[in-house]
Structure formats: structure tokens, C-alpha cells
Write a structure and sequence with these properties.
201 residues; 15-stranded parallel beta sheet; 17 strands; Pectate Lyase C-like; two-stranded parallel sheet
């Protein structure tokens, strides 16, 4: 599939972009609404502190980008990937993500309130103190992630896989974890959520 370079100066609110490459450009602090990307690639884009409300991604790859403290509230992401991105403080409140993969991303302190995740994967991601308050997660895999201090207050969890991840200090109603897949090394942390102490005297 051929993709064509896009001049960042051509980005406009409400516009749709198909099979374009946006690469190695400076967009820090830009304010754009209802952007749509389909079958596109964003490579090395500096987009921290941007406000891209209700951005739409379909079969789009986001690689090596800086999205720290970016506001993507209401985003709609389908069958897209985020790889090696800096996303500290990324705000995707009330977003909808389906079939999205995050690989090697730094998502600590991300705000994911009321966000819906379906068939998503986080692999080797830093999610320390990320906040999934009121989020809905179904068939979501956290593989080899750092989830220490991550908050899931009021979240609805179904078919979750936490195997291989650090979950010490995770904040979640223990009952909400029923049916969640964990490994043996995680059992003490899971037991703690139910007030059970494993080992010791």
C-alpha cells in the first residue's frame, strides 16, 4: 500500500487523511478537532501538549512519537498501533479503542477515565499511576507491563490478562478481578487486594 508524505502545515480541523505519512515534524501545542487518519503512519512526530479532540485513527501506526500531556479526549481508534511512544500524561478520556496495540510505550500518569477498550494489547509499556477510573476493558492483555500504582476505580473488567506484569500497589476492587489471568508470581499482590497475606508468620 503506497503512502504519500503530508505537509504538517496542511493539517486542518475536520479533515480526513488517507494513506499519508506524517514524519519528523513539530506540532507541539497544536489545537485541532475531528482529525481523521486512515491507513496512515505518524513517525517521530513531536505532538506533546496538543489538543486533538475526537481524533479518529483507522489502521494507522503511530511510531516513536511524543504525545506527552496530549489531550485526545473522545478519540476513536480502530485496528491501530502505538510503538515506542512517549505518552506520559496522555489524556484519552471517554475515548473508544478497538483492536489497538501499544508496544514499548511510556504511558505513566495517563488519564483514561470512562475510556472503552475492546480487544486491545499493552506490551512492555510503563503504565505506572495511569488512571482507568470508570473505564470498560474487555479482552485486554497487559504483557510485561509496569502497572504499579495504576488505578482502576469503578472500572469494568472482563477477560483481562495481567501475566508477566508488575502489579504491586494496583488500585482495583478485588471482586472486579474475577476471571483475570495472572501468573504465580503475582498471587501475593492479588491476594493482598482481598486482604489475604501470603507467606510470613
Amino acid at each position: 500500500m503506497n503512502q504519500h508524505p503530508l505537509d504538517p502545515n496542511q493539517l486542518r480541523s475536520g479533515e480526513s487523511y488517507v494513506r499519508v505519512v506524517l514524519g519528523e515534524c513539530e506540532l507541539t501545542g497544536s489545537v485541532l478537532g475531528e482529525l481523521s487518519f486512515e491507513a496512515c503512519r505518524l513517525q517521530g512526530v513531536k505532538a506533546s501538549k496538543t489538543v486533538w479532540s475526537e481524533v479518529s485513527l483507522v489502521e494507522t501506526s503511530i511510531d516513536d512519537c511524543n504525545l506527552s500531556n496530549a489531550d485526545w479526549a473522545g478519540a476513536r481508534c480502530n485496528r491501530s498501533t502505538f510503538s515506542r511512544c512517549r505518552m506520559t500524561g496522555w489524556d484519552a478520556t471517554a475515548a473508544t479503542l478497538r483492536g489497538v496495540e501499544f508496544g514499548g510505550c511510556k504511558l505513566n500518569l495517563a488519564l483514561l477515565h470512562e475510556t472503552r477498550f475492546n480487544d486491545c494489547t499493552f506490551e512492555r509499556c510503563d503504565l505506572r499511576e495511569a488512571d482507568f477510573q470508570g473505564a470498560t476493558l474487555k479482552n485486554v492483555r497487559f504483557r510485561d507491563c509496569d502497572l504499579r500504582g495504576t488505578r482502576f476505580a469503578g472500572a469494568t473488567l472482563s477477560e483481562i490478562d495481567l501475566r508477566g506484569s508488575h502489579i504491586a500497589g494496583i488500585e482495583v476492587d478485588g471482586v472486579a478481578l474475577r476471571g483475570t489471568r495472572v501468573d504465580v508470581a503475582q498471587l501475593p499482590d492479588v491476594a493482598y487486594l482481598f486482604g489475604v497475606i501470603v507467606g510470613g508468620r
